[in-house]
Amino acid sequence: MKKIIAILLALLTMTGLLSACSGKDEDPVGNEPKTETEVKTGDKEQEKKLTEISLSEVTHSVFYAPLYAAIHQGFFEEEGLAVELSNGGGADKVMTAVLANQADIGLAGPEASIYVLAEGREDHPVVFAQLTKRDGSFLVGREDVPFSWDMLKGATVIGGRKGGVPEMTLEYVMRQNGVIPHEDAVVDTSVQFNMMAGAFTGGNGDYVTLFEPTATEVEMAGQGYVLTSIGQESGEIPYTAFFASKSYIEKNPEIIQSFTNAIQKGQTWVDTHSAEEVAEAVADQFPDTKMDVLVPVIQRHKDIDAWCTTPVMKQEALERLEDVMETAGELPERVEFSELVDNSFAEKAK
Prior knowledge:
This protein is α/β, with parallel strands linked by helices and 350 residues long. 42% of the residues lie in helices and 18% in strands.
């Protein structure tokens, strides 16, 4: 990913590309919030002006349930915001959208922000709120048997894109458990993220790492069995976080604070409600997923303590992410926590 982002950064320095991408003639640096829109809110149908903001997420997943709960429960509206949500389709694309001012806020792994900061970009992305605190993927095998990591020796694991955090975390956990990737076991990084389940159910590999609800759907279809959580094995890692450009945050601190307040409310709501209640709250985000899948998926995330209860990012957790990246040979250099992360908004929201 760091190579992809480096190329994107080089392209973004071209004035022509920036002006073509921004689409904000009145604000060439893209730091002005979008126009306010009138919506009807509350029991009395009172008109309230909300500030529109655009949010690009790395993918659309139940893993981000606190965000969707905040939307469904009206917490953003309470904070005076209307969120325009879009699926970026990858951390590199989300980062490009933020740097090119096509999105006000991005949701992706902090590693993308680390890569950009290490490149020396002055108006670099700053992480201001954390959403998830563990890897959300699960190791799926072909047999429903008691699992031990030694079982991977001599086997092939479909692990995802090389340099992606899911793949790097898998290799980190394997090493922690005495299985050396590419020596004791084959880690197949040739399969695209959205094709991994199909490759596995089609007969490729002995194991695969899958996110929810795909892992549960494969299990319910009798085509595989969830054996262990990668996130439980790796420990706390700031897996997914919200970020914006340094200049946007400096120019719009009220918006960032309101956004963070809504996320805190969503995290608290999910933490204090049952899997069934959370499933009902996020169901409209996943119209093709039945409730008998959503409920166990959400319960599984609760069981592994995947979601933050506060948007504050811990320095030791970020350092563990850097350990994972360093072990995989993907860390250009360690960054200053204070340069990458601004916890002031999260602290106020907490």
